[in-house]
Amino acid sequence: MNTVRPSIRTILPTRLPRALVALAGICCVATTHAADIGTVQQLDQREFRLLSEDLGAALSYKPLIPTAPLGTLGFDVGVAVSGTVLEHRDLLKKAAGGGSVPGTLPLASVRLDKGLPWNFDVAVAVGQVPGSNIETSGAELRWAFIPGDVLVPAVAVRAAYTRLSGVDQLQLRTSSVDLSVSKGFLLFTPYAGIGVVQVHSQAQGIATLQKERFNLNKVFVGANLNLGLINVAVEGDRTGKNTSYGVKAGLRF
Predict the structure, then answer these.
(1) How confident is the model over 81-135, as pLDDT tens digits?
(2) Is 92 left (phi over 0), alpha (psi -120 to 50) or beta?
(3) Distance CA 197, CA 55 (A)
């Protein structure tokens, strides 16, 4: 099974501010782009694989939350936007019938994380690429086997799943596992993790294209700022060859 190894140097936090400012502009103009996927039959097998790598990285689950558990009564609800730099923008354009496609694919989402007993957390997210038929839904289950305290960082394992919808010609889903760590310092909590994403991609009604299944290695770093009820998280992610940046704002109880 093929894997693509990321480098954490490509997502160092010093690159986050510039990328996050760019995200706002990307989402504002995204509705002017016609990125509806509807001509997948124009791709050959190699191109289909490369497109699947881009979409798998873009639509796979992004934590956007520190590792420490929320607690039985805790929850975190927010809206998020992420942007993934496309390695093969020309292939998404080809699969979208020649429509204009941004070099960084934006994804807007609504997310809810809920704490459970025994240091477990669950989360759900639904999102859409603005101006496109690309929609996604996902969920995660996280267990902090070291919940962390004033001196000890929190360490957790996560299993997550996402599914593409809205595109008749394409079925794509991702499943992922990762190990992450975070440590709070007053209102500020940095976090980081490493894992693997498995991508399943299959063209619908196109006999010339075979299904693809492959793994992408993943690393991510982020930081959370909690101001009472108001909560803001920023994150950089490298999945396979694709770099993503994201920001989430919302409420935490």
Answers:
(1) 999 999 999 999 999 998 889 999 999 999 999 999 999 999 999 999 998 999 9
(2) alpha
(3) 12
Closest CA to 192 of 166, 224, 214: 224
> The pTM is what?
0.86
- At residue 2 the predicted structure's pLDDT band, cuts being 50, 70 and 90, is low
Let me know if domain 8-252 sits in CATH 2.40.360: no
Residue 32 is predicted with a pLDDT of 47
Q: Average model confidence (pLDDT) for the chain?
A: 90
**CB atoms < 10 A from the CB of 227, how many?**
9
For 195, residues 6+ apart whose C-beta sits below 8 A from its C-beta are 158, 176, 177, 178, 179, 217, 218, 219
C-alpha distance from residue 214 to each of 49, 57, 85, 241 (Å)? 9, 12, 20, 13
